[in-house]
Amino acid sequence: MKRYLTSPIRQDLREKMVFLGGPRQVGKTTLALNLIPQADETHPAYLSWDVPASQRLLLDGGLPADQPLIILDEIHKYRGWRNLVKGFYDHYKSHKQFLITGSARLDHYRRGGDSLQGRYHYYRLHPLSLHELSARPRSSDLETLMKFGGFPEPFLKQDTRHWKRWQRERQSRVIQEDLISLEHVREISQLQLLAQMLPQRVGSVLSIANLRQDLSVAFETADKWVTIFENLYYCFRIMPYGLPHLRAVKKERKLYLWDWSLCEDEAVRFENLVASHLLKYCHFREDTEGDEMSLRFLRDASGREIDFIVLRNGKPEFAVECKSGDRALSRNIAYFAQRTAIPKFYQTHLRTNGEDTEWPDAKARIIPFLRLCELLKL
Question: Which of 104, 199, 304, 327 has the CB geometry, 3.0–4.6 Å to 262, for a possible disulfide?
């Protein structure tokens, strides 16, 4: 399967290094190796920091000969990785390309001092989405995404037993390998508990005060742990869209997971799936076009809420409200349509054969999620 970032990355490698971040097992290594014909993990151009032989070669200043593209995987686990990569790039940039991949935010783990600013383009690889699977989204793909999530392996297997085992193994590797190698934390059992607690808080404003009580830790510690999970692409939070004249909430943040299949409730899972598709939309346009994109939500002091607002360069582009079965136009959409500059509201639902209706006075459209993905290329 050719991933959606393959062509942009191939083009950018001609100019600079490319950093590719994303969740563990989302397909970063597969994408990277697909840039080399008939390559696999044994190819000499692929150097993983988790392999001792690759570590020794890189620390000695060596690179494989006759390889125009060098793939450095998980090298951010080395404390001085930025200076090491900078040295390789400055010395070999005239005749070698460098692709740096990692299961963490490579823009966050800046250990080593000297900045690489201006030497790389940064991409974030997301799980599979409806538009990536097909330009004309299919109801069968939506059903599979809802049940097994968008990570390639469980999506392609479509086997419940395999999905359960894969989930346990992935969570264990995120905590036991990624987290321990990158962060100075010792409370592994509490972090495992936090990972189990987060799916129950999806779609809601995340209260760090309540979380710290459940974990029996300080407020600052609980907040730091959630941020660590964000940096490891386990979860993400979205900020509120603050409008002073509406007394809008400005500080609270809502929580979602990169793997929405962990949500047990179908309505919550659907909201998380929509959030993930919209975040992918934002990241793709930010990483490829350079626009400043942001995914927000809107809530006022009276509790009226719109699930998602997409901002482009600080201005609202459109809003999305998720509904599991309600056929009537949301009163919140009608309310905010009259009081905000949001140009378009979409009320979307899971029904694949549901109605598609325009409401001009409210700048709104009730639309099945399949059609919304086709319309916006989500």
Answer: 199
Closest CA to 370 of 255, 257, 270: 270
* DSSP secondary structure letters along 67-89: -SEEEEESGGGSTTHHHHHHHHH
User: Length of the chain in residues, anyone?
Assistant: 378
The closest of 232, 229, 234, 208 to 220, measured between CA atoms, is 208
Q: What are phi and psi of 69, to 5 degrees?
A: -115, 125
Determine whether 335 is exposed, middle or buried from the number of CB atoms within 10 Å of its CB (0-12, 13-18, 19+): middle
Nearest CA among 61, 174, 179 for reference residue 109:
179
For residue 141 the two structure tokens come to 């793909």
Dist. CA 146–CA 156, nearest whole Å: 13
Which domains can be identified in the chain, with CATH numbers?
Answer: 6-124 (3.40.50.300), 130-376 (no CATH)
Helix 139-148, helix 266-289: angle, nearest 10: 100
For helices 369-376 and 139-148, give the axis angle rounded to 10 degrees: 100
Amino acid (1-letter code) at residue 154: P
Beta-carbon-side half-sphere exposure of residue 238 (alpha carbons within 13 Å): 30
pLDDT means per 10 residues, the chain with 378 residues, are 95 96 96 93 95 96 96 92 93 96 76 69 97 94 97 98 96 86 81 94 94 93 92 94 66 93 96 98 97 95 93 97 85 95 95 86 95 96
Q: Identify the helix (H) or strand (E) that includes residue 119.
A: none
Going by the DSSP 8-state scheme, the letter that residue 260 receives in this structure is G
Task: Tell the burial category of 177 from Cβ atoms under 10 Å away from its Cβ (0-12, 13-18, 19+).
Answer: middle
Q: CA 228, 293, 119: angle at the middle one, nearest 5? A: 70
